[in-house]
Automatic annotation (TrEMBL):
GO MF terms held by the record: 5-deoxy-D-glucuronate isomerase activity; glucuronate isomerase activity
Catalysed reaction equations from the record: 5-deoxy-D-glucuronate = 5-dehydro-2-deoxy-D-gluconate
Sorted UniProt keywords: Isomerase
Its biological purpose: Involved in the isomerization of 5-deoxy-glucuronate (5DG) to 5-dehydro-2-deoxy-D-gluconate (DKG or 2-deoxy-5-keto-D-gluconate).
Gene Ontology terms describing biological process: inositol catabolic process
Pfam families assigned to the protein according to its UniProt record, in alphabetical order: KduI
Family: Belongs to the isomerase IolB family.
High-level lineage: Bacteria, Bacillati, Bacillota, Bacilli, Bacillales
Name recorded for this polypeptide: 5-deoxy-glucuronate isomerase
EC number(s) stated in the UniProt entry for this protein: 5.3.1.30
Range of residues in the leader sequence: none
Amino acid sequence: MSHLLRKPENNKLADGVTLVHEVTEKNSNLHYVGFKVVDLEPNSSYNEMLTNLELCVVALTGKITVTDGYQSFSDIGTRESVFERKPTDSVYVSHNKKITITANTKARVALCFAPSDKELPTKLIKAADNGVEHRGKYNNKRQVHNILPDSDPSANSLLVVEVFTETANWSSYPPHKHDQDNLPNESFLEESYYHEMDPPQGFVFQRVYTEDRSLDETMAVENANVVLVPKGYHPVGVPDGYASYYLNVMAGPERIWKFHNEKDHEWIIDRD
Ligand SMILES: O=C(O)C[C@@H](O)[C@H](O)C(=O)CO
């Protein structure tokens, strides 16, 4: 299996608390992006001490209450399945805080981390605050929910976005990359993909490859898998009959999403 593909670990931490994924600097080749997925049964809680990291808590499914010790956001989250295709609520928390997430219903929660050295206010990012975009045409159609885009100064380095790709369509396509710290032309951002499929027995294909092909991995990605993109192009292809959801976390030295399309495939965008 590719070193970029992570299957659910399903590590039971306590009664009602399961760590589905844990991507950290220690167990991956990522230095900016950290990512966890936690499943919570009703009334169970998960704690996290944020030392040098900022965090965006995304209520993927179910209802949760998030507190940073000072402020509390109760009963947030808007959906029972990500495939309801509506935005959800999230909470941004700066470093040096201890957060507690308590489930009001059965819930799946994503924790998106990035390095931080400037304290910023804790903030509820309401579903209604997500910028919703419809991108692409022909078989390149996807719906994007911008949770923490680079136009929103609420975070130090975190960028968070969720993407729905229709059946038999492609996204993160034409292939683009952001692996050069060379602004204003391109930014360096690592990225993680947390994938789900509808119906859940589906799979998608994701290729991660660099310009010189020294990295070139094509992965069959199943429900609840995570793909790590330390660098390179990272397109996703969705087979007929299945819809795709993914949550992206990006972070790097500068909080700007400036990508470079692979020249050979840029014509895809320019079709009438
Ligand atoms: O528009 C899309 O297809 C989504 C991608 O932009 C995705 O969020 C990504 O690859 C970000 O670099």
